[in-house]
């Protein structure tokens, strides 16, 4: 994932609301969200190159998602796949706090990452470059390719969009509209992450288009106070057009 906006215990009836865009090279082979045949409790997309996932939820209500930490100078081809972290949490039974405590000893085996992990009772964040585990406070938060709530333009726009969407009984439509925002940010507000100004401009939008790299899927996940999960994923082409839609609901 490259953009995740979340509302944690911001509404009594919807304790967890997630809206996320997965940005990736379009040549990387991927399966869209589905219940995995080898692990039927997991609902997630699948990276067919490394076998893991960027975001998923289980029938027991465990949730995890990962974003990359943008630092071209710190990219190792020998590093383990970050998608394995999400898969390991979803398959396990450790609390988020215990899982992250165990992960800290091996976090340098991966290129930089940010992890969100929850089990319905708690939601935790861990950024490998900050190396500090944090229980997420109730409210609205957003994450891109830096630390949680770093005030990048699209992070701030996404937080405001989530706050507006929470007013609706069903926030999904507004959240998908926010994820489809292809507007960039002024140069003077862009971060300097080492990728060059042209890429900084391109990556400043919530929705990234292009034939080589861009937003490949948009997902809205909600979990209500009775344990009902709604997971909707839009698969996008290089122009940002929805070419496939999947909706799964379970308790």
Description:
By secondary structure, the chain is an alpha+beta fold. It contains 5 helices and 13 strands. The radius of gyration is 17 Å and the shape is globular.
Keywords:
251 residues; alpha+beta; seven-stranded antiparallel beta sheet; 5 helices
End-to-end distance, in Å?
A: 25 Å
Tell me the structural class. alpha+beta
SSE ordering? EEEEEEHHEEEEHHHEEE
* Average pLDDT rating: 96
| Order of strands, widest sheet | 3-4-5-6-7-8-9
Main sheet record:
7 strands, antiparallel
Contiguous helical run count: 5
Helix content: 10-25%
Tell me the strand percentage band: 25-35%
Radius of gyration: 17 Å
- Detail the poorly predicted runs: none
Described by the principal axes of the CA atoms, the overall outline is globular
Short synopsis of the structure:
With 251 residues, the protein is α+β, with helices and mostly antiparallel strands. The chain contains 5 helices and 13 strands. The two termini are 25 Å apart.
């Amino acid at each position: 994932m490259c953009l995740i906006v979340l509302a944690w215990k911001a509404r009594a009836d919807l304790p967890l609301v997630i809206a996320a865009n997965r940005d990736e090279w379009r040549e990387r082979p991927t399966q869209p969200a589905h219940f995995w045949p080898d692990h039927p409790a997991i609902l997630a997309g699948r990276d067919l190159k490394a076998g893991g996932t960027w975001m998923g939820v289980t029938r027991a209500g465990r949730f995890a998602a990962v974003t990359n930490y943008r630092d071209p100078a710190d990219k190792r081809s020998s590093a383990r796949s970050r998608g394995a972290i999400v898969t390991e949490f979803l398959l396990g039974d450790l609390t988020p706090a215990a899982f992250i405590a165990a992960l800290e000893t091996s976090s340098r085996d991966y290129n930089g990452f940010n992890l969100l992990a929850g089990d319905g009772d708690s939601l935790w964040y861990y950024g490998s470059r900050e190396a500090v585990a944090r229980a997420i406070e109730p409210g609205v938060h957003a994450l891109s390719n830096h630390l949680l709530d770093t005030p990048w333009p699209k992070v701030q726009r996404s937080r405001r969009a989530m706050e507006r969407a929470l007013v609706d009984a069903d926030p999904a439509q507004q959240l998908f509209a926010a994820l489809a925002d292809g507007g960039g940010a002024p140069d003077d507000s862009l971060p300097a992450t080492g990728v060059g100004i042209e890429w900084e401009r391109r990556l400043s939008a919530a929705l990234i288009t292009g034939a080589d790299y861009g937003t490949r899927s948009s997902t809205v996940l909600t979990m209500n106070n009775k344990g009902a999960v709604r997971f909707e994923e839009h698969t996008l082409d290089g122009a940002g057009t929805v070419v496939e839609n999947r909706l799964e609901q379970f308790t």
